[in-house]
Structures are given as structure tokens and as C-alpha cells.
Amino acid sequence: MRSGSRAGSKPDPLTAPPADPLTDPLTDPRNGSPYCGAPLKLLFAAGASVLALWLNSWQALAVLALFSLLWSSGRVKPSLLAKAHLFLFAALGVCLLGAAYIPAPGGGMRGGPGLSVRMAVLPALRVAVSMNMALALVMSSPASALSRFIAAAKLPDPLFVPLSVALRFVAVFVSELPQVKDALEARTGEPLARTALSRPWRLWRGFLAPMVFRALASADSLALSLEMKGLRSKSLFWKRAGAFPAADRARLARGAAALGLCLAVQYREAVAALAFRAFA
Amino acid sequence: MKPALAVEGASLRYPLAEAPSLSGLDLEVYPGELLVLAGRSGGGKSTFMRMVNGLAYRHYRAESSGSVKVLGAELKDKSLYEISQRVSSVFQNPEDQFFALTPRDEMLLSWECRGVPESEAGEMLERWSVALGLKGVLDRPLNLLSSGEKQKTVLASQLALSPSVLLLDEPSSNLDPASRRSLAESLAALKREGLAVVVADHRLRWLCGAADRALVLDGGKAVWLGPFDGLADPGLVGRWGLRRAGPITGCGTPPGPAALRDGPGRPRWPALTASPPAPASASAPTATGSGAPLTAGARQVPAGPPPGSAGLPTVPGGLAPGPAGFPPGVEFRELGFGFPGAAPLFEGLSAELPVGVPALVSGPNGRGKTTLMRLASGLLSPRAGEIRFGGEPLNARGRLARSSLVFQIADRQLCMGTVQDEIREAWKAWPRGSARGAEHGKPGRPGRPSEAEVEGVLEYWGLAGLALRHPQSLSGGEKQRLALAAAMARPSELLCLDEPSTGLDGANLALAAGAVTAAAGGRSVMLITHDEDLGELVPSFPLDLGGEEG
């Protein structure tokens, strides 16, 4: 029944009834992909993160960050995305403030004036791009689809197992954050934001220490769960073919165009010269 | 008959541990038998489970001697994966076993890894999701499921592959009475189909009618082995720090399904669905408002008002005053709340939590007990209505400053470097020179506690010998006691306790009950628990949120 639904004439995605999730448990009703679009998301996430490291123009990075935000906003709850950005920029702000007053090699303190806007903005945009893409990838893809796609790449188990755990860990970390925040607020008797402003040193003990312990414990549980299930590259043997249906290929082309636009912004002078030469 | 599980002369010692955690254990569990492991915290129950499911030597690298065999095959030289094909485990916290994000994905991934053909997956998913009542939540994020639904997801992932032995570690800790009954029925049905089941739990009463034998472990040794009914002996209960195993209302031999499997290797249509819940009593009082979501299917606390609360009035329906004769404490007025995109959880909820007697909040898993606690303590804000402390309406920030909480998983609340610092840190929040309240029976205290005072608190909770240990290195029961001690040492007008008896044996349960009762002397206490043992020990009045159980 699954093969029948895909083998016939191509259904209109807007009018075709969704696949029965029980009889067709692995297929994404939107595009018929057995991987639920996970390969596409994984490629986008990896491509955008690498590109963010390559780009060094704030304009190009801003365009890329905007694209990543738009892409992830359709896949992740807006409230989660907003909190993640708030957390990211608060953490980066603390780091940058610290970096602005580190001891200078010649003695004394290297103060704020030495810190350029460029030094602050570029890392923030890069991290924002990676965070948006990682959240969209992990929060909207079934763990099995991601692992199945990695398995299809025939990675050896010493790479496959940690990579599977790492991809799944992002979601565990995200679900732990609000619970640790609640525990901290219950201890301090005040909202987290107030503690961060009035007594930021308490965040280390009250927030980061439990978070680190829970993260370690969660990573341990994930690895254990994976081991007890016997998850190995070869143990995932369902549907290794057909990773990219036509709908995903069109999305891939659009995504590649978006990444290309960011590169064009970075090298806009060369692009302008080329365009001028072509039209002249 | 060949035993499903045979343990012969098994001893086990964890790395760096001075004493063995299990020593000289001999035991046989037969197909179709349910064995209960009981005993004090730290007695060796969890270690026994880890020994049988292979985690002790494969994951914790413990040294072991003796043999552990399943259907005659030695387990020690097998990998975790090989062992897990014969022995299924349900951990105390099922979340620790999930790799996927939804029940559907979790089941499919588990089955694929164990060689189930893709062509059979759809049918298996249909069969197991219907049998365990998971069909409606197959695509809901696992972290949003109730404890019972999480357990059922683990069961479906593992039982579909016909193991020989099933291990469950404290499976009742967060289940409501209906879910416990449902689980007991499922276990009785599974053992009738030839599965050997081992359950380690402090709560024993839910197993009556399903359990056959019991093994009491203390200090890593088997100190008593006999029929399950033998645990009702008061001498045994007192000597080994057990909880009572006497029967509870409605507990009988569960009417399980006739068959679970239709062949040696492949499960048949599983019929694990719980028996229909008992009809709601027409006269069942609720502490709810007039809104439809709260009144539908409302029921009385299953075990009835606890004996300790005799003389205290049951809270009537509608706008519910607290019991007479107690000073006003926390008050909910016409409270409305619902999560975005979901049906309203509370509509027009009004109730009082007076000072002097704890409110025992009851309702089935997922009914909103923890959400009500988060609203009361200021971690959430209501959509409508107001919450008053001592007659004064407070916003979320104000409520947060005047509340202390103990969550279901205590790990996240412990963040100091030593056990004694946890108490000291919580205690320091008392205003200098203020009265300390009734707990621990001491008079007023300054803002910073003396060494003797901290020691007194630790002594009470049986943590004195662990004062310099890192809190995260404690066992689950010890962490739970420390979180309770710290929350009660913190000054507050509202003390919220969410399943505080998790991991507590009989003796520690009595300690916790005494402390909760004393703490209520100076503040409102909101006690959320499905534990009838705790409910009976703490004089309280019921605050029933209603709703169908199970």
C-alpha cells in the first residue's frame, strides 16, 4: 500500500489525502519521503553552518541569519525560538563583556574601546545561524529518520553512534532548560531574569551546575538506551533507497539558491563586476 | 519446569565501593511468576535489576561472581543488546530509555533495531497502540506524555518482541491509582502468558492479586523469601523497613486477557487494555469551580479521606472553603488556565489551602495537578482569576517569593557543593531573628544557621553521615530526602510537594509524613501524591481535581 501510493501518478500535495500514519508509519504525508525530509534538513543545517564560518561580511551573515530564522520558524515553535535567541544573546553578551576586559599582554586591562562592533556581531550571527538550523533539524525530524539517513551514508559505527547521540541530545537539552529554570526560580524565589541582573553569580550554581549534571546524565542515558536497543548502522535496514523525492529536490534547489545569494552578498563587488561585464 | 531466571551464588561489587552491593544471592523465577523485590532504600533492589539486565557489568563495570541465567543461558558473557533481547527492563524513569521524540518513532526504532520486518511495522503499531491506549498520543512529544503513557511506550517497544523476563524498577512511583490498576492487570496477563516478571518497588499494595512471591533485600543480602501475602506481617514490615502490603479497595485478581501471543516468537493481538474505570460517584465532592472542564467525570480521592484526617470536613463542590477552624492561607479565586493551543485546563477554579492542614491534591495523571502547583507558586500565571496569600492578591513574582517547592525529579534542585550547604543555603533565606515555624520542634533562629542546627536537620532526615557528600552523588531516595529537607528549611507561606514519597522506604516515608504534617503548622501545604501510604500518614483534606482516571 505504501509503494502503491507513491508509484502511481504524482498526487497533488494540496489535495491528496495524507498517508495513513498507522499503515504508512515512516512516510512524511507532505512529500512522501521515507525520511520525513530529514536528509534535506541535515544538508541545509550542515551547509548553512559551514557557510556561516566561511562568510566574514556582516551583511552576508545577516542575510544568512534571516534565511535561517525564516526556515526554522516554520519548523520550531516561535516561543522556543524566541527563548533560544534570548538565551543566546544574553550568554554572548556576558562573554563579550568579559572579553572586553581581559588582561592585555602588556599589562593592565584591555578595555571596551578595543572591542569593535565587528568582533561582537560576526560571532553572534554565526552562532545564531547554527542554532536556528540545529533547532529546526532536531525538533522537526524523527530521531529514527535522522539515524536512518546517517546509516545510509554507511558511516562506521564509531562515527555513527556518537553522531546519532549528538543529534538527539539537542532535543534533550532543549527540554531540560525550562525545568532547570523552574528549579532555580523555586530556589531563589525570583524570576531568572531578575537573578541574572541582580546576582548573576548565582546562575553558575543554580542554573549551570544542575544543567551540566542533567546534560551528562541525559547523554549517558541516551547512549545506554541506544546500546540496549542495539542501534548500529547495520541495524537500520528499512527503506535505504529514495532519500530525495521530487518535492525535496525542489526544496534543495531553493535552499541552494538562498545560500548562493548569501555568497553573492559577500562577494558583491565581484558579482557586480561580472554582471556589468556580462551586460556591457 | 525450567526457571526463566536462575541466579546462583551471585555477588556484585561496584568499582570503588568498599562493600559488595549484592552477596551470595540464590534465586529462581519461573515462567508465569511475578516476584516482588522489597526492602529498605539501598538494600540492593536496583542493583539486582542491573545485574539481571546486564547494566551492572556492562555499563557500571561492577565485579561479579556466581551466575545469572535466563532459560539456561548465561548472561554475563553477552552484550547489552543480546541480553535486552531476552530481558526487558522498564526503568524507574522511563524517559531514560527513550531515544526518539514521539511514541511512534520510539516503537518503530526499537522494532527495526531488533529485526522486525518493515512490512509488519504498521500492523504492529496499530495493534500495540490500541492495546495499550496509546493511539491518541502516538505523535505527541514524549516529554509531554503522562508517566503512565511513558511507561506504556516502553512496554510496547519491548514486549512486542517476546522477552523471557520483564524487570520493572519502581513502576508505580508516579502513576495514579487507575494507571496502577491497569499496570497490575497487564502484568497479571503477561505472567499468565508465561513471562517471568520481577518488580522492585516500595509501594506494595497495588501488586496484590498479581504478585506471587516476594524477596526482601537488606544490605545486599536476601533476608526473606516467601509468598507475597507474607509481607503483610507487621513484624516483617517493622524489621526490614517495608511499607504495608495489605489489600486496598478494589484490588483483586485482575481479569486479564486470555492470550497475548499466538506463537512462540511473534506476539498476537495484545489485549492489555485496562478495564473500564469505575463510574463516578454521583455524590463525589470536588474542590472545583463551576466550569465544565473541571466538573466532568470528577471523582473522590480513590482511597477515600485518609484516616488521619478524620474529623476534617471534605471539601464540597463549587467554591470550596478550606476546613473550618484553620486560619486562611492560600486561596484560588475563579482561576482559569489553559496551555496555548490546548483545551482549558481550569475554568472558574476556586479553593482554599488553609494554614494548619495539608491539601491532598488528587486527580488522574495529566489532569493538571502539577500545573496547579506551578500556578500557585508563581511559576505560571493564570489566564483569569486571582491567587491570594493571606488574603492579599499576589502576582507571579510575589507568589514565587513566598513559596517553596519540591519537584518530581529532585536532581535539578540540588546545586550546592555539599549536602550540608544545600540546607544552609535554603535556611539563609529566613529573615534574621524570625520565628522558625513548627518543623523540627525548635524555637526561633537567626538568618544563618548554626552547625548544630544544620546537623539537626540532617539527622532528622537520616543524612547526617552524608553531610560532606556532593548532592549529585547521592542515591535517588537520598536526593529526594535532601530536596524535602531544603524546601522545608526555606521560609515560605506555601509549600508545594509533587510526589514527595518517590523512592522512600517505609521508615523514610514516616519521616517525610511527620515533617509534612509539622510543616503545615506554619503555612499552607499543597501535597500532590498518588501514594495511598503517604495519604494515610498525613492528616489532610482532599482537593480533588476530578477527571477520568487511567
Oligomer: heterodimer
Q: List how many beta strands of chain B DSSP finds.
A: 19
What would CATH call the homologous superfamily of the domain at 5-100 and 162-239 in chain B?
P-loop containing nucleotide triphosphate hydrolases
Uncertain runs of chain B: 248-322, 431-446
Distance between the termini of chain A: 58 Å
Total number of domains of chain A: 2
H-E string of chain A:
HHHHHHHHHHH
The general outline of chain B is: globular
Structure summarized in a few sentences:
The complex is a heterodimer of chains A (280) and B (550). Chain A is mainly α and 280 residues long.
Structural commentary:
The complex is a heterodimer of chains A (280) and B (550). With 280 residues, chain A is mainly alpha-helical. Chain A has 2 domains: 38-101 and 111-141 and 242-264, no CATH class; 142-231, no CATH class. Chain A contains 11 helices and no strands. In chain A, helix 2 (38-54) packs parallel to helix 10 (246-266) and helix 4 runs antiparallel to helix 5 (117-139). Chain B is an alpha/beta fold and 550 residues long. Chain B has a domain at 5-100 and 162-239: P-loop containing nucleotide triphosphate hydrolases (Rossmann fold, 3-Layer(aba) Sandwich), CATH 3.40.50.300. Chain B contains 16 helices and 19 strands. In chain B, strands 6-7-8-3-9-10 form a 6-stranded mixed sheet, with helices on both faces. In chain B, strands 16-17-18-13-19 form a 5-stranded parallel sheet, sandwiched between helices. In chain B, strands 2-1-4-5 form a 4-stranded antiparallel sheet, with helices on one face. In chain B, helix 15 (506-519) links the parallel strand 17 and strand 18 (524-528). The longest helix of chain B is centred in the middle third of the chain and has 16 residues, at 177-192. The radius of gyration of chain B is 24 Å and the shape is globular. Residues 248-322 and 431-446 of chain B have low confidence and may be disordered.
